[in-house]
Structures are given as C-alpha cells and as structure tokens.
Amino acid sequence: MSTPARRRLMRDFKRLQEDPPAGVSGAPTDNNIMLWNAVIFGPHDTPFEDGTFKLTIEFTEEYPNKPPTVRFVSKMFHPNVYADGSICLDILQNRWSPTYDVSAILTSIQSLLHDPNPNSPANNEAAQLYRENRREYEKKVAAIVQESWNDDEDDDDVDNDENA
Amino acid sequence: MAEEFVYDPERNYDEATLAQLRDMEKEIADRQNLISNRIAFDKLSEEYAKEDEIYRTKIQGDLKNRYDYVRKTRGDGNCFFRAFGFAYLEKLLTDQTDLKRFKDVAQNSKSELVKLGFPEFTIEDFHETFMEVVGKVENQCSLDELLETFNNQGLSDYIVVYLRLLVSGFLQKEADFYSCFIEGDRSMKEFCNQEVEPMGKESDHIHIIALTNVLGVPVRVEYMDRGDSLRCNQHVFPEDSTPLVTLLYRPGHYDILYT
Fold first, then answer.
1. Mutual orientation of helices A124-132 and A134-153 as an angle, nearest 10°?
2. Is this complex scored with an ipTM above 0.90?
3. Under an 8 A CB cutoff, do A84 and B125 touch?
4. What is the nearest CA distance from B65 to chain A, expressed in angstroms?
C-alpha cells in the first residue's frame, strides 16, 4: 500500500537522482524503500577529504513528520558521532522540520563533518582533541579516512574490525 | 532513595530520550483517536469528575448551557492545528459559503511560501495532500470520510504540517510586527524553526493569530482554566469577527465545541 511516507520517499529518491547535491549519494536498499544506504564524501579542505563514508538511513511511516535514524556504518572519528555511528545533530532530533528531505539530511551531515559542534560532544576524545590538539585530531581522522577506503574493497571489514 | 545518575560517555542519551518519547506517544495514541466522535457534555463531565472539580463546575454551570457537544483531540502537541483544520473543513461540508474564497487562498499559498524561501520540492508534497482534502470537502464527501482522513495518521499529519508551514510563512513575512511578541533572544526565523515547524510543538496565541490571519478563518476559543471564576473566558481571533470554528482550551490542550 502506498502511504504518505513511501510516496514521499519515492519523490526524495527521484530528486536525489535528478538533482544530486555535490559529494553525497543515497538510494533505497533493494527490497525496502524504508531503509536507505548513503555515502558522504569527505568535504574538501577538511581532514575528512577523500574519505568515502557509508551510512544507513532508517525511516518510519511517520516520515517526513518525524526524522529518520541516520547512522555511520563506516568507522567515524568526529566530536558529534557516537561510537555506534549515530549522530548528534539538532535537525535529526528536536529541530527536525518536515520540509527537510534526504538531500537536506545528507548535506547537513556533510557540513557537520566540516564544522563540528564541540559543545555537544558525542565522542569525548574527538571533542577534546578538536579543541586542544588539532594536529592529533587530524591524525586520527586521517586514519579513519584510510579505513573508509578499505570498506569499499571488502564490506565485511567493518565487522571484523569491531570484533578484533 | 533514587539510584544515583552516572554519566556514561559511551552511551547515546539522545536515542534513549527519543525512545522514551516514542513510548509515551504510543501510550497516548492507544487511548485517544486523533479526532473523536461528537460527545455529549454529560459524558465528558463524568470523565472530569474524577480528575477535576473545577472543570466539572465550569462544564455544568456554563459550557453545557451554551454548547451541546465536544469532539476530543489527541494531546500530541498538534491538537490546535488538527482541531482547527477538522472543525473548519467540517463546517465547510455543511455550509459552502466560504469554500471558494478558502480554496483560492489555499491554492495560492504554496507560491507565497516558495517566494518566502521555503523549499518548493518538499512544500509541494504537503500542499498537494492538503488540496486533495479540500477537494474532497468541495465534492461533499461524507462526514465519516473526513473523520477517517483526519484519523489516518499520515494524512492527518500532512494537514497539520501544511498549517504549520502557513503559520511559519505568515510570521516570517510579518516579522517586523510580530518579533516583539516572541520570547527569548531569537530571530523570527529561529522561532519558526524551533516552535512552529516541528511537529508536536504546542501552539500559543501567536500561532492562533497567524493561522486565523493567513487563512482568513476567524476562531473563538473558550478558555477553561483552574481559576475561581464559574464561567469560561472566551476570546475571538481576530477580535470583532464572526467565528466559524469554536475550540475549547484547557491548559495545554484544544478540543472542538459545537452548538
């Protein structure tokens, strides 16, 4: 059955294909329009440059009235990303507006990479290094940028790393 | 003694909070339809008798003499918008005098919002659904069908979203005048992003003033508070107009009243 959420997600997908914002991409998984895979390319002139970071976006029937759950699948080192990959970003929580679509979500996360908010840390180590030792922060980020390429070659790597 | 709270930096508290909110919403949803059938006052006052003597006095001694029925709405923070939307469209089903004017206003509202900088792509989706429902009313759908539409969470919320967007658009357009009515040190755009557009944000006077203005649909609100007065206070938005819709307010919630 077509519900407003599913109809809207088809529209979001169409728009993302016809008018893709620079540096992000996303598509529904094969048999489930409510679950998307997305990729954000690390923005230029940031320590994340050249990284290809994978995410999942999980929608409910309440979309777009409620925000989806967005998670990094690729390993991330960022002041506003939790260890489990979930993201602390106001527009995905209490400042969500139904006027946002998938494009807007992905570009907002992209600019969060560029511009972290150290006042609401989800990863204390990253927040502290970002504030106090930018060189070390950039080193740690460079490591996960490298790891993000490995994901591309072998999807299982992520799991293996976590279990190691 | 309550267990001491120990902050765990590895834990995602945002998600825990959101999950708790979802549980609370579900509990309310199981108890109350988005829009109820018409209920006679006797039944309503029975319900209040348990919880509140002052409300019961005001219903028995005042409201009951002036109104016959009430429709209850779900207390989900959207009740003003949903009550207003339903009550007005229900009114149009029986009296189409205002229909053509309203349809024109609603039809043109999308380009107004786009002019104000709202993203056309997403606005369009809400506007289409809103106009479909107005179309149903124009074609004289049954009251049951309208009630069903408003109790379908997806459709019903789309209508609420569109009304919220209209309020946001109006306030931003008239920001010079309305800025002095908003609390805190924030711009009108920030206020709209935080207090108007997100679903579930409760409505204040400023929301009511904006919605009645932008749609040209006057509304009467009966205020039933816990004050000592035996009667409800009423207020008409805008003042000196003839209301097409009457809502019952008790702190934090709006229902619909009928004569």
1. 130
2. no
3. no
4. 39
